[in-house]
Amino acid sequence: MHIAQIDFPEFFSQAFEGRSGAREFVACVENIPAQVSLAKIVLHQTARMLWLADRMEECARGRPALQILFFMIAAETVAKLAVGFRGEGESKKHVDFFFRKICSERHRARLDRAFSYNLASSFIGWEDSIKFLYDIRCDVVHRGEYFSYSLQAEPGGINMLTPSGQGRHLIANISAFELRTIILEGSINAAFRLCPQNSNCRNLLIGLTNTSPS
Question: Quick one: CA torsion of 171, 165, 112, 70, rounded to 10 degrees?
Fold first, then answer.
C-alpha cells in the first residue's frame, strides 16, 4: 500500500466507533471549500504521519522512538495549522499547545499516568510526560538515538524501562497504541474546531466520536 492510498474514513473509524460515522465526518470535511479547509489538511496530515508511524512497527519493531517521532511531527503540524502559524521553528511550543489546548482532559488524564520514576513512585504528571516525549523526538532528530527507549507492548502490558536523555530512568506505563490514539483523537478535535461555524461537520462530530472537543 502507498501513502497516497490511505482510506481516511477507515483510518479514523477507531475514534468514531464505526466506519459510517467516520465516513460522514471525513466526507463533510473534504467538501468544505478548499480555500477555508484547514480541517481537511489536519485530517490528511495526521493520517499520513500516523500511517508512517505504523510502518515503523513493521520495519523497526521494538523501536518506539521512531513512532514517537512521527507522533510528535503530527502534533506539531496540527497545532501550527490550528493557530495559523506560518513561521519557522517553535516546534516544542506547538507540541505543548497540541496536548495542552487541543487534546481533551481525558487525554491529559491518561498522560498524567504515562511515566513514573520507578514502580513504587508516583507518576511524573502529564506536563512532564509531554516534555519527555518531546525529548525522545529530539534524541531521534538531533542525535540519531532511537534504540534506547521502550514502551509497553500493549495496553496493560509489562512496564518497560525507558532511559531518558537527561540521565534519569523512567518506567513506561503507556503503549505506543495509546499514544497513537491520543494523537488521532486530538487531531479530530482540531479539525472540529477548524470547521466553519455553519458547517454540518460540527453536528456530525458531536455524539459520534470518542473524543471530547472543547
Answer: -110
